[in-house]
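Quick illustration, no need to memorize.
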Amino acid sequence: MIHDENINKILRDTFLIQSFEGSTADNWSWEEHGIPSEIVTTASYPIQGADGDYFLRLPMNSEIKWKVSGYESYKAFYIIFLLAASGVDPGSSFKVYSASTQPNVFDESLDIKNSIYPKNFGENFVFKGKERDHVYVYSNPVDLTLRVSGGSKGNFFIDKIITYGDRPRYTLFTGTGGREDVERWSLLPPTNRRRGLINGNVAVSTPEKCGEIHVADGSVTIHKEGSLKQSLTYLYGSDIGIYTAGTYETSNRVTVVKDFPEKGKWYFVSFPFDVYLPDIDEEFILKDNKPNEGGNFYYVLSYDGKKRSETNRGQGNWNVISADYPRDIPLFERGKGYLMALDEEALKQQILISSQEKSLLYGIVMSGCWLWIYRPALPVRRMRIMAGYCVVIPFRLLCV
């Protein structure tokens, strides 16, 4: 999959950005040469079309330089930014220089003869012989120099300069090591919107962000000083976990990919989050003990602890969940154990079960049939599944 371009499709994302807004997302600094540049506001310079309230002023005889880093995993990458000018002499020039990973050097001057230059961001101007509404630097630029010269008055302005590129969407982690261990990843560590496939034990010790995490065999450990933010988490297998003493956050949801080795057989399930009917695989339908024609159906039994206590009997305490179960009440309550089975006529033996959006900020541990929620203040308790059925009591799983 990792090396199949038909599956591991190219993803275009931004990896360097400077908005001049003081945003936490701004991760690209620059060097000053000549007359210093200045971050200004729309109130001081009424330039229209800015992406926010601030942009960078380049006075005459100024020069700024940018270094491009973190491009190693990209097949191709580019720089773009918005440009405007005010009160510039016709003889002035705005030059763009850039070295490249390819054997050529980008060197272009903005043609502003006869005062043809963009007075506002987003206005068309002639650059590299074409009419554009932004400056576009291609051919894998590893640096960028902007130089203003030749005039005695006026200013150029730039806004929202970014570097974006094309690279494979998925990267695979194997073995044991830190997230920063490049050699553990098939295509470098995942960042931004990329997706990490975990088939080993990876530790996170710094603030990190990516698109998705897929844990198939192994674990993710987030240390106290680390954090991991992503939009989706997928959990596969029966011996996996996400342990955190730092910050684990998903902006969307966590999905457990549950396998049923045999159809028509009961399996114990439990989740560290409430699960509602709409959050269960749409290809399956909940059924109960009423006769049906068979198909992509699933069945759920809930253990009645009160009945067990009242009758003091170890048998007959599992209740069938009705097929018309309410959609606004958790079908699977957080931390409670259930028995679940697929219909013998089901066409699939894998079902997706998800949390609600933004409902989980803790770690997860999946051990055998049990999916644990892990918080630093509570130990992760190991357990053993024995023959028979399982009963859940506070803080432990009792199998008899």
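The chain has a mean pLDDT of 82.
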